[in-house]
């Protein structure tokens, strides 16, 4: 008992080098300005879920417009006032809806909500650290994110409405406050919100990288880290290397908007008025944006891939297939994602030779992505699969990643992309490969680690209902969009049915909208399950999924500093599932090889001859014993 | 035993926090890299750069910043040799020189404006001079904050470990912004 108290003091000092005496936990310091990584993770998750619900609501609004362009919905006017006069969404507002939907989903839900939640929760827990490198910066990271969300939502309440230039905010549309209503105050708020968001991401990412490199427990060398950690680590590096470029671009855009510079502007005439700006180039924004933007899409998907590696391995009761290949393909993706951004710009009049270069790099990046897919399938192959809700969502991710990745290869070919660019084909591509896949990865993580976060279990039946409805509806929503795109239907049009050749697509649009509405309703099953289980779920056992990683060695009841006593030491990799000769079908990372003599393999010892000798002696003794029994 | 584990964890903690500063240096470098690559692509496609003779003040300020870096180096050395009054003296000197640097930069803007090379310019390359030097001054302000933190630690006599930690992060950051400015200055000189 005495050791425990001593240890407690000890972590106390190490934690907070200026604290004297004991922490007094008030409501504010526990739930609001918390510096505990587990609480911050929950804050990110719940904020992310709220933002996701908002963004999903926006998408239903514009889906209504796309399906029934001539119908009036009086109820909309009650909610939206002048933005839906006569019950019909105004064109300006339609653009705002699309823009804010994209921004929230990509940045707030799938970047902050996903990385923020699971990196914060799992990096210290799976590596055996008391907390992040800088808990204070971690707290700031959340509050900058929260501010970004609030500022973005405020733009719905300004006279001219939210930003409307698309989530990529291309100038000159975004640079000229007079160009469209959304480019006024709404755009300014968008830019401010984005800067807060980047500050938050950088603080978070820097913290994650420093923690992974410096604060692993004894025995946890890099090659013993779970794939989740590898994914979060490389994602954070990607963020550190690419987000600053977005800041650079955004700063120039702010100056163009408010200080009369011409970074992105040249030869502009509004009405009859010729603007004085000259010499800038909007293409330069696209370069700066996509230099971030492409890594950003991998920032979104890599944590989801890491989560499904873990979930799939645990629930197949098999070691992950090709652990090293998984890590190297993540590293490959990290590096390659910096040299493919030009594939978003094939039609900007770029030198065809340069286009060719970007085409080749783009097709190369499909290779590590494919390696990951094959490894998932090989892990599932003949596994002893437990279909938990988390597992279903992880398998769903693999499915979406394949079906959306294939169309990426179409788009990566410049000659095809010139036809398909800015059509619904692109919308279909990224909603499958990024939108659906990453959301499914995130949901897999929520179902899997809910017991760790809240100490209770989620209801599995509701989980199955949620999965099947969402999975089927996501395909029903996004798959038909490929065909619209192939027929040349452009994205971001308020009412493309005004063009005669596209009128035939109205019926498809109605179908898609119904599927979207059902998908949205299916999320109610999740929301109810989530919030109900926080308070009323079944109390979770310490290791509900019989997993190997360190987080399941912490007590169910959370405490500051994670482990009551000393931090456990790690002896083996995290994927010893169904090891031949072992008593159980899982061996946690904290079990030394000396306790599992019957299942050790020669390669477990990594060339440690002393250990090999002991093992051989043991086996010889075992054989001798066998013999005496037979005799 | 417990004591030694404890110290071990504290050391780890400092090491991780120091690493944070390095990562910040990396991301900040990349931000400036974004602007200078903008400049390169802009200049290449328009066939013109800022086309100015940069004000001499930039040269003086560069000198001042270099000397301040030397002072900080001397302060660190004094700290290591436990000559604490020397340490404080050189820290004050660094601080003063940092302020002078910022003042010189802003006066340099003044001369630029007088020659007509204003910020709101139809030559984006000229506007970019203000952007990079302006954001560099923001870094100087942050750096001054760190120098003040070290000074404060020295006067308040906080534990040696923590003083050393503060000195180290101040040094990393201050030498970084020194090198950063030299990079920017040389870049602007070469790409006129
Ligand atoms: C198999 C590898 C992939 C290839 C070859 C690929 C290729 C492409 C190409 C060429 C485009 C540009 C289409 C256009 O605008 O004309 C594109 C768009 C996009 N891709 Fe992929 N992609 C791949 C995987 C991914 C992944 C894994 C994600 C995200 C997780 C992703 C997210 C996006 C997004 C968000 C866009 C649209 C951006 C916009 O214009 O709004 N892609 N992709
Ligand atoms: Cu891309």
Automatic annotation (TrEMBL), chain A:
Gene3D superfamilies reported for this sequence: Cytochrome c oxidase-like, subunit I domain
Subcellular location: Membrane
Record's keyword annotation contains Ribosomal protein: no
Any single GO BP term: electron transport coupled proton transport
Pfam families, alphabetized: COX1 (PF00115)
Residue ranges of the region described as Disordered: 1-21
Transmembrane domains' residue ranges: 44-64, 93-123, 143-167, 187-209, 229-255, 288-308, 320-341, 353-378, 390-412, 424-450, 462-485, 505-532
GO cellular component, as recorded: membrane
Compositionally biased spans, kind Basic and acidic residues: 10-21
UniProt topology in membrane: Multi-pass membrane protein
One MF term in the entry's GO annotations: heme binding
Family membership noted in the UniProt record: Belongs to the heme-copper respiratory oxidase family.
Protein name: Cytochrome c oxidase subunit 1
Species: Pedobacter duraquae
Automatic annotation (TrEMBL), chain B:
Domain of life: Bacteria
Domain Heme-copper oxidase subunit III family profile as annotated: residue spans: 1-192
Location(s) in or outside the cell: Cell membrane
Signal peptide feature range: none
GO cellular component: plasma membrane
InterPro entries (alphabetical): Cyt_c/ubiquinol_Oxase_su3, Cyt_c_oxidase-like_su3, Cyt_c_oxidase_su3-like_sf, Cyt_c_oxidase_su3_a-hlx
Gene3D superfamilies associated with the record: Cytochrome c oxidase, subunit III, four-helix bundle
UniProt keyword annotations, A-Z: Cell membrane, Membrane, Transmembrane, Transmembrane helix
Ranges annotated as spanning the membrane: 20-45, 57-77, 89-108, 128-152, 172-190
Main location as per UniProt: membrane
One Pfam family of this chain: COX3
Single biological process term from Gene Ontology: aerobic electron transport chain
SUPFAM superfamilies: Cytochrome c oxidase subunit III-like
Topological type in the membrane: Multi-pass membrane protein
GO molecular function, one term: cytochrome-c oxidase activity
Family classification: Belongs to the cytochrome c oxidase subunit 3 family.
Protein name from the UniProt record: Cytochrome c oxidase subunit 3
Organism of origin: Pedobacter duraquae
